[in-house]
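Whether sequence alone determines local backbone shape is best considered at the level of individual chains. In the encoding step, the backbone of a single protein was reduced to a row of integers, each denoting a local shape. For completeness, the protein is quoted in full, as a sequence line and a line of structure tokens.
***
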Amino acid sequence: MDKLRIRGGRTLRGTVRVSGAKNAVLPALAAALLTDGELTLHNVPRVHDVTTMFRVLEHLGAEGIVEDGNSCRVRVRSLRGPEAPYDLVRKMRASVLVLGPLVARFGRARVSLPGGCAIGERPIGMHLSALRSLGATIDLAHGYVDASAGRLVGAAITFDQKTVTGTENILMAASLAAGTTTLRNCALEPEVVDLASLLTKMGARIGGAGTDVITIEGVDSLSGAEHTIVPDRIEAGTFIMAGILAGGDVTVEMCRPEQLAAPLDRLRAAGARLEIDGERVHVTGGADLTGRDIITAPYPGFATDLQAQFMTVMTQARGFAVITEAIFENRFMHVSELKRMGADISHDGRRAVIKGPTPLAGAQVMATDLRASACLVLAGLIGEGWTELNRVYHIDRGYERIEEKLLALGAEIERVS
């Protein structure tokens, strides 16, 4: 099993380019199930979750997926079988995104209940309720969702709470439903907008993506399309915070700063030195930071996927910072690992209090989920001596060649098998 070794204290300088968004490419790949035409995607990150989705699609019947650098071509002419099995789905919760497309185009699906990072309860009940509203029959048995339908029929659906994958799943399903579907209380995330853009290129009729209410006029069929995946705002935020902590002069390019308004606002309020120039964020490290509170929230609020990284920044800020995790109930597993490195953090339930600044020291630490692993890499960059990050497969799920990108900025980091 691989691990990362990081020697802290090196100053980061240079330019780092953001990869395509993992959370945008996964639903885009699932959309290949909606058509017998070829889907060509560009700016596809080479991360483990993408590889897992390739395997899911191949199992379902995708013809040899062609990869060329950061582009890929996918075509699903026919269905080999409707089942997305446990051995694949358990590795990645987003595998459930094949459910809506399978039912919409092929009339049946058997999908294992999903796995992924153990950061809290993430039920798919809203997906299933919405599919029932569109006319699907749903059964749960032996750890699987069995869904079947003739042609789905448009309906008015209101999600009980914001759900990104739920919005995406039903957006895809409704694109092939008869009549009009209206989705209310939709997720506003840029990844949802990116999926709607792709579906529109495929021939879907969608209005309101990026707002609370999305309207879909179902069509009889969709065609292939070519699409470039939006940049990964979470990777961009992670490298911006790396520049704040360890940078002398770091530029994060090929990002969308407007999609990071909330975290950039809190970082500026803490004293970080940031300059925005189009799709580039320039970071000058060494700022005198002051503790600032955050509460995670659905987009456009402060992303839960940047909460752990922000906590590492707050260990180097004067005074107290209170972080409230309002999305997932079990997303402070990185606290104990940061404390092993010398951080002064107390937490109770969904609230953590960080007292700083505290010097960090290298240690053996364990990644517990994708974003926790990123926060520990940031801590390793500023910790005295060597930090060894175990269970690095977590970070490989969502960050493309993170050690190579940090090496290019001047970090002392290596992957050890």
Observations:
- The first helix runs from residue 22 to 30.
